[in-house]
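User: Can you predict the 3D structure for this chain?
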Amino acid sequence: MGTIIVGGGKSNRFGEDKISYLIDGKPLIYYTALPFIKSNFIDEIVIVLSKDNYKKIKKYFENLKKIRDVIIGGEERKDSVINGLECFLNSNIDKVLIHDGARPIVRLELINEIVYKIDDKKCIVPVIAATETIKFIKNKKIKTLNRDFLYITQTPQGFPYPKIYYLYKKYENKKLFDDSMVFELDNKEIELINGDLSNIKVTYNNDMIEVINFIQKNEDRYRI
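Assistant: Here is the predicted structure, written as structure tokens:
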């Protein structure tokens, strides 16, 4: 079982590189990786970084078990994911998780549930129901969407491998909003499971404050 943790984004809304933001002397993405290292179901992990934060962050993963490789990603997230997926081409990995590097509060139980449910025909996606009204705005026209049918996707998302790699290559020229979208485009099965409200993605400064408080109050969860 493989895992790709993607940390090559530009952090435009955060104002600085959130992936390398230090919490008690270690970068954010270090804490993101720990639950996957602790999972008995995960064998190998690939960390994908940007060319700007690669040298700064790589050293924190040098002595951690299960780390297969730390690599530089591409221009867009989909390019970084493809780079990560290619690391497993000459391995025995038959399932893979793809996770945002800016989601360090992922529960071990959620990771294990996703791993358990993956098979060779479907991918697994954690979601939470939309609780606020969403407006669709285009060309100054506004349409209110029915939130009873709207869900917010999270990561990790789980996939059969190498099927996810071939689908990513097939649709790499499409605008992709999440990893499961390549299954959607190819009319493959997607199973939705309950995500976690606590599994936030650090996007704004307030998110980082929440994450720092959580990590400092739950030190045992991040001890290996």
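The longest strand covers residues 122-129. DSSP finds seven helices and twelve strands in the chain.
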